[in-house]
Amino acid sequence: MGAIHVHEFMSLDGVIDAPTWTFDYGFTPGMEEALGAVTERARGILLGRMTYEQFEPAWSTRTVEDDPGAPFFNDTTKYVVSGTLTNATWRNSKIIGPYDPAAIRSLKDEIDGDLYVSGSGTLVRAMLSDGLVDELHLLVYPVTRGSGPRLFPEEGAPGKLSLAACESYENEVVYLAYRPQA
Amino acid sequence: MGRIVVTEFVSLDGVMQAPGGEDFKYKGWSFEFDRGDEGNQFKFQEVVDAEAQLIGRVTYGSFAGAWPQRDGEFADRMNEMPKYVFSSTLKDPEWNNTTVISGDVAKEVSKLKQQVDGDILVAGSRRLVQEMIEKDLVDEIHLMVFPVLLGTGDRVFGETSDKKPWKLIESKPVGPEGVLVLTYQRA
Question: A143, B163: Cβ pair inside 8 Å?
């Protein structure tokens, strides 16, 4: 029985999308350590369809020499939330069907370890609404995008959170971890 | 030469609306959190460091209705310092030491930066702040981020024609309840 940990690369104005715009800032040792602490407890990766389809070509061709995250992404079982995808070609993947909070709760119970989520905006917004996110790990970049999909929707679920971590790095990225309170 | 310093109370989902009890579903939402001595000191330092305030019409209305009734060092400073309210309709400003300015935001704000030597503090004033961000007139921004998702309400950051880079000056938690202060300067 584990927890659901969501990690997002986010602009200061709350935009999350394909994080190509983060590449200019690099990835500091502090950021690697912060994310490493999350991924090392994960025994499963939960993804929405679009993120899964973007991750597969990006990660499946990488080795540990290309990127230290490659073994985690390739070897860990990926659970894909999708009502349309029928054939998962990335190794160690399972399609679990369309979004269903009960199915996600069962998955949490069944896995001996945490579930790591990243990207997957639609899925994350639904899970936040249904109280399924145990911890939110935000890497906030020193830029406002001025447009683009936001992590927190216009009409979303209200709730208090507790601040679990706050750190900043030499590339001006700020790491914030929050736990939604019941 | 003046600097525009914007300061806002925001929820984690970026809502800045009515943190202090104005008309809103969650009126006074920011008061539910203890920002601690550090948080109070941060807010006090802002008004101590400011030479003047620049305020949009709607925020001015709330402030002018509330501050003159209050006592203490912070209130005294708010009440006595020079205030510039951006409005094309306001005729008789009721709050002490107020000048009404109107016209083109870029032109008037640039003029104000020439006239005021020091920090020009801007609190609330969403429409004015969004326009100044779009026009690259904001020199520094202070966000006091509360550990809450409101799920509804006006957001501090609107649409801009292009992305804007900022420079991180400081990030620190204040108080015992996870309130956070983020300070950025225009890059």
Answer: yes
- Please state the domain extents for chain B: 3-186
A23 CB neighbour count, 10 Å cutoff: 8
CB-CB neighbors (< 8 A) of A145 in chain B: 163
B149: nearest CB among A146, A159, A163: A159
**Which ipTM did the prediction report?**
0.94
**Assigned CATH class of B3-186:** alpha beta
Nearest to B148 by CA among B5, B15, B42: B15
pLDDT tens sequence across B117-166: 999 999 999 999 999 999 999 999 999 999 999 999 999 999 999 999 99
Q: How many CB atoms lie within 10 A of CB B145?
A: 23
Say yes or no for a CB contact (<8 Å) between B171 and A142: no
Domain count, chain A: 1
Q: Encode A14-57 in three state secondary structure.
A: CECCCHHHHHHHCCCHHHHHHHHHHHCCEEEEEEEHHHHHHHHH
Query: Using CB atoms, which residue from A11, A14, A147 is nearest to B159?
Result: A147
Q: How far apart are CA B85 and CA B100, in angstroms?
A: 5
Domain around A63: 5-180
Do A73 and A58 meet the contact criterion of CB atoms below 8 Å apart? no
- pLDDT tens digits, A114-130: 999 999 999 999 999 99
The enclosing domain of A12 has a CATH number of 3.40.430.10
Whether this prediction's pTM lies above 0.90 is answered by yes
Q: Is the pLDDT of residue B175 over 90?
A: yes
A 21-80 residues with CB below 8 A of B? 21
Compute the nearest-CA separation of A157 from chain B (Å).
5
Q: Which two tokens stand for residue B145?
A: 């981020």
CA B76 to chain CA mean position, Å: 18
Q: Are B178 and B45 in contact (CB under 8 A)?
A: no
| Residue of B149, B159, B168 with shortest CB distance to A152 | B149
